Every structure is written in structure tokens, then in C-alpha cells.
Predict the structure of FAD-dependent oxidoreductase.
Amino acid sequence: MGKGTLIIGASHAGVQCASALRDAGYAERIILVGEDDALPYHRPPLSKSFICAKVSEEDIELKSHAFYTDEQIELKRGLRADSICRETRTVTLSNGEVLDYDNLVLATGSRPRLWRKGEMPGNVHVLRTLADARHIIGALKATDGTVAIVGGGYVGLELAATVRTQFGRDVVIIEASRRLLSRSASPLLSDWVARQHVQAGSRLLLNTPMVGFETSNGVVDAVVLDGQPDVKAGVVILGLGIVPNEELASQAGIRCADGIMVDEFCRTDDPCVYAIGDCARFSVAQVDHTVRLECVQNAHDQARVAAATIAGNPTPYRPVPWFWSDQMGAKLQTVGFLDNTVSSITHGDIENGKGAFFHFDSEKNLCAAETVNNPAIHMQIRRALAAGKKLDQQRFEHEGKLDLKS
Ligand SMILES: Cc1cc2nc3c(=O)[nH]c(=O)nc-3n(C[C@H](O)[C@H](O)[C@H](O)COP(=O)(O)OP(=O)(O)OC[C@H]3O[C@@H](n4cnc5c(N)ncnc54)[C@H](O)[C@@H]3O)c2cc1C
């Protein structure tokens, strides 16, 4: 027996990698180290069904206790990997324990971007972990008055939707850009989402940078804005984006550039070290810059790619990225890369909550699709793109039922 595979980070990517290794017949030792005390859990429900108590902690576990025992995956919870020594192929943990590896998989994910040097008065929150979600639930119960959401990305907007519709609280969404979801959605979808939030009674402040907080006795009173009156708030939730957890790799001399750089087999510039999920940056054929994909699909797919390589069956990663968001009673699903969009078509009855936005590149081929309550079309497009099909704009130009199977 060798020293086996050591996986750092026990969330979507890390757990999936351990599971995929066993599925691929890998019989060596697998150790999975995670900083979080909780049994690994799904993050997406934290801003949706978990925050309003529609699902429990048990419901959101990624795998049961028995899975780790049955699959002989040694799960070490509540421990941080502090350093990597690539010469001795060892990792030192926060309790002083030193672990050997033949293959090291970094699945360290990302963390919320904080406000100025981490300045966090009482009742100012971020949402990444189960513990964060518990704190937010506690704060919502213990306060009344307005909830301010700073940052109109997906996590902030999902929380805004849940807090407004499930808790009935006054919500103000504060966004520095001219539109919501500016990094991850087309202007068409941004506008649609903005209308839903406003119709539900939330106040939306676009093009409005936050400057700081007003506090009393260390607890937030208001969000201070640039050139506008302060927004009084009992609870503030920051959704300012995320930062990749790359320091463990960069301190070991592994190449990083806003993410741990990997090739199409998820290998870093050290052939024994892999990086997967939110923390990994890589090249894709569809766009001319490297990407980090911040979604469950990418965490799972890269986990399987790294596992296959380690198990001796390397298969390159050719992503067709997709993700979903649930807010305001709508299921929003996006597939593909929006970067190359030169024209777009609106399909279906989007104003009444069911339709799609299709986006085309300069050669009039579909590069991305955003669907609203339309999982069937989302799936058809995902399958077609994954099969390498080109979907030309003409197919989408009629108003009738779409047929993408032929
Ligand atoms: C509230 C919320 C809602 C979301 N909703 C959606 C959605 O609807 N759809 C979607 O596709 N995606 C969604 N996402 C994004 C999705 O959850 C992430 O893309 C996914 O979690 C990435 O998985 P990961 O394993 O790469 O990283 P992470 O989930 O960030 O996990 C990394 C783990 O590594 C641990 N770790 C880091 N450093 C160390 C260390 N040195 N030692 C030990 N452990 C370490 C961390 O504690 C963490 O548990 C959501 C995210 C959040 C926070």
C-alpha cells in the first residue's frame, strides 16, 4: 500500500473526489480533511430553504456518517491544513499532526470577500457556512426593522428574496454596479430579476457604493452610502463576492493567480498536487481568458476529473458550465459562457414567469442560455452543448415550441 490520497477541504469538491476515487476502484488510503466542524453539507440551501427552516441540518448533509465508514474514507473534521512540504510530501494540520501523501488534492474552496480589513460590527454577517447561516437566523429572530443586503450577486439576492418573502421583513438591496448580477447574468436577466425584487416590495439601490457602517455600542445601525442618505438597518448581510482559498498552495510555491492554476486534468504545476472546485483556475476552449467557476457543477466535475487521473484513467475536463438559483419562486438556470454574446433572443412568456434568454456569438451559434422556470429547455441545451453540437440562431427565431433534439 502507498500513502494514498490526501484531500484538503471537505465540501462539494472534496467529498465528491473521495467518492469518485472509490467509484473508480481506487483502493489506497483516502484522508479527507475539513476545517468545518459539521458533517459536510450542501451549501446552496443555506441561502434558500435552510435559512427559512424548510429543511434541517440533517436534510442538507452531502453524505451520511455511514458513507465515510463504508467507503473507508478517513474524515477529519474541525482541522485546518496549515502547510504543505512538497519535498517530503507531507501536510501539517492545525493540531500538529503530519500526514503523508502520494497525491494531494486541494479542494479548499473560497471565502466571502469582507468589508475593509474585515471590519464587522455586530449584526453584520456574511454567508458561506452552516455556522454563518445559524448566526443570520439568530439575528433575524432577535431584531426587527430593515435588513440591508449589500451586493446584488446570487447569494445576496437569494437571501433578499428569502428574507422578504418568508420573514416579511423590509429589505434594501444595495449594489455598487449599474445592474444586479453584473458578473454572472446578462443584462436581460438582471433586469428581470430586479423587477421581481421590486414587485415583492424590496428597495433596490443600484449604482450605489457603500462607504461604511454607522454603529452604536459596536452594533450596526445603518449602512453609510456615497452621496445618499444612510440606510437604517437592524441586520446587514454582505454579499460582496468570494476570494479563492489559495494561500496553502501559494505558500508551498504552487502557481496561483486569483486561484490555483491547473491544467485540463486538474493538476497544478506539481504533478502530485491537484486543485478542484471554487479554488481552481484554468483555461477553457470557449473563452480567451482563464476562469474560476463558482458552482456545484464545476466542483463535482473537476472532482471526477482529478479522481480519474489519480486512478489511472485521465480524461480531460471540457466544461459546459451550468448553475441554478432559486429566488422569488422562480428557478433560474444558466448554461454556457456569456462572455462571447453579441446578440440575444427572448423566448416564451418571461413576464409571466416562464421563458428564456438565448445568447449567440459572432458566428450566430448559441453560447449561453438563461432559463426562468424552464428546466426542460435548460436540460436540452445542456445536453446539446455537452455533445459538442452547434445550435444556430435560426432554430431559436420562431416563437413556437423549441426542438433542440434534432
Ligand atoms: C449560500 C450559498 C448558496 C449557493 N448557491 C448555489 C447554487 O444555487 N448553485 C450553485 O451551483 N452553486 C451555489 N453556491 C456555490 C457553491 O456552493 C460552491 O461553488 C461550492 O460550494 C464549491 O465547492 P468547493 O468544495 O470547491 O468549495 P467550498 O464549498 O468552499 O469548500 C471548501 C472547504 O474547504 C475547507 N478548507 C479551506 N481551507 C482549508 C484548510 N487549509 N484546511 C482544511 N479545510 C480547509 C473550507 O472550510 C470548506 O469547507 C452557493 C454558495 C453559497 C455560499
